[in-house]
Amino acid sequence: MIACSLGAKSREIIFTASATESNNTVLKGIAFANKNKGNHIIISSIEHDCVLNSAKWLQSQGFEIEKLPVDKYGLVNLKDVKKAIRENTILISIIHANNEIGTVEPVKEIGKICRENGIYFHTDAAQSFGKIPIDVNEMNIDLLTASSHKMYGPKGAALLFIREGVKIEPLLHGGGQEFGLRSSTVNIPAIVGFAKAVEICQKEIEKETQRLTKLRDQLIKRVLKKVSASYLNGHPKKRLPNNANFWFKFIEGESIVVALDSYGIASSTGSACSSQKLKPSHVLLSCGLKPSQAHGSLRLSLGRWTKEKDIDYVVEILPKIVKKLRKISPFK
Amino acid sequence: MIACSLGAKSREIIFTASATESNNTVLKGIAFANKNKGNHIIISSIEHDCVLNSAKWLQSQGFEIEKLPVDKYGLVNLKDVKKAIRENTILISIIHANNEIGTVEPVKEIGKICRENGIYFHTDAAQSFGKIPIDVNEMNIDLLTASSHKMYGPKGAALLFIREGVKIEPLLHGGGQEFGLRSSTVNIPAIVGFAKAVEICQKEIEKETQRLTKLRDQLIKRVLKKVSASYLNGHPKKRLPNNANFWFKFIEGESIVVALDSYGIASSTGSACSSQKLKPSHVLLSCGLKPSQAHGSLRLSLGRWTKEKDIDYVVEILPKIVKKLRKISPFK
Description:
Two copies of one chain form a homodimer. Chain A has 332 residues and is of the alpha/beta class.
C-alpha cells in the first residue's frame, strides 16, 4: 500500500522511527558504503537540520560537503546542480518541499541530472508525502524519506525508499530486520497507523490539494492586502498547498506567535525542530532575508480541518496584532 | 520517574526508539567521540546482535574490538576483563542479563574495574530492566540501555542513560532534541506508556521477582527430572527470574517450538531477533555447546501472567513431545 503510493516495490521500502532517522541513514549510509567511489556530497542550503547536521558530521569524518544556494523563493537552480558535480560526487540530497517556506524544488529535473551522471539522488519528502503526488520512477528518485506524523499518522514511524541496487550501509546494526537495512524490533502498531494514514491521503489527495491550494491563496492574498509592509516567503506558486509564510517589517515573529495563540490560533516562526533556538532561520537567510527580517517571519499551516471561516478569522485577527505590535516596536 | 528507578538524574536519560538504537548510539557514539583517546573496545562474546554488529562495523572503520570469552554458564570472568584492558581502551560494554540464557553478569564488579582504569562502562540492560533492580551509581555504570516493550511498555520507546560528563557523539544528528544527543520528534505517546510500565514494574518488582524465581526453579527442576538427557543452559542461580533455557539431546529446538505451539505454548530457540537465521546461537556456542547441541535448545520465558498451572501444563506436555520427537530423530 505505502510502496504502491510512491510507485515503489515493497522490498524497496524500509520503516524507521522518524524522518530524522531516515535522513541520517541516507547521508551516512551512502557516504560510508561508497567511500571507495568518492567523498563528495551535494545538498542545498535549505535542507532540514537533520540533513545539514548529518552532513556537518560527515565533514568531520573527511567527507566534502557542498551546499547549493537558492534564489529568493528558495529554489535550487539546475545550473548550480550541474556545476557542482565532480568526479567524486556520490550523492545529491535535495529537500522535496521545504518545511518552513513550503517551496517545492524541481526534484524530477535534479533527479535526471543525477541519473545522467551516475550519482545517487535522495529527496527528503517529509513535508510533501501525502500532500502532493510523488512517483519515484517518474521523478528519478533513488532514495526518499517520508514521515508518518506529518501526514496524520502516528508518531514513531517513517519510511525510507531505497531503490533496488543502491549501495547503502545501515545506520542501525543488529538483528537484521528490514532486509538487513534497519535493525530494531519493528514498531508494527505505528506502521499500521502510518499505512492507514497513507490510504486515507491517497483517496483524498487530489480533492484536498485543490481545496487547500484555494484556501492558501486566499489567505496569502488577503494578508498581503490587509497588512502593510508584509511579504510572502517562498514561491507564490511552487509551494505546498498547506503552507503560508510571511514576514512583517518592524516586528518579531515570536511576538506574533504569542499574540495569535491568545486568540486560539497556532502558528510558528522558523522550524518546529529549531523552536528552542534563538538563531534566525537558515532557510530564510538563504533566501536573502536579513536576520531582522527572518525574525519577523510567521508560518501558518493549513490542514484537513481548516475551513474558509478559519481563514476569515486569521485575516481578521492578524492585521490587528501586527498593528498593535508595530505601535510598541523599537525597530520602526 | 524513569530516571529515578535507575538512580539517575533526569538529564542523564535520553529516549530513543529501540534498545538497538541505544546500543548503536553507545558503541558508535563513544568510539567516534573518543578516537583521540584510543580505538580499543571490549565486549563479551554473548552480546546481543546489535552490539556485536555495531562492533563489527566499527572494526571496518579502524577500531579494535576484543571479545571476552564466557564460561559454561555464560559468565564473563573478571580476570579476563582486567587482562584485556590496554592503554587505548575507551569502552567496555557487557550485557547485564543475556537475552537467550538469562545469565546475569557481574556488572557491578566490571564497572568497578572500568572506573579504576578510567574507561567508560556500558551495559545493555534491555532484558533486565524492570525484572531485577538496577542502580547505576551502586553498579558503577556510565551508560545503560533499556527497552520499553521488554517490560510491558509499548513498542517504539527505549532509553539510554548517559552519565553526566560522558563524551559521546549522537547517532541521530538534526534538530537537537534530547539535550542535543538524539534528534527526532520525540515520541511522547510511547514514552508516556514506557513511564507507566516502569511505574508498575517498580511497585511489583520485589514480589514479582520472588514469585517468578520460584516458578522458574520449579520449571527447571521438573523438566530436568522428567526429561532424560536434558540440560540447563545458563547459570542455575545467577539468571533472570523469568528465563529458562534447556537443551535436549538428539532433537532440534525448532521442532519442539512447532510442537509446543500446537498445544498453545509459545517458546523459542535462540534469540527472537535472529529467528529467521539458521545459524546456531552464538551465545550457546560461546558457552561451549556444539552446533548440534545449540540447535537442540529451547527457551521458555515466564511473565506477569504465568501461573503455577502453566508450569504444570508445560511439564506435562514437553516430556511427551521430546519423547515423540526422539523416536523419529535421525540423530540418536
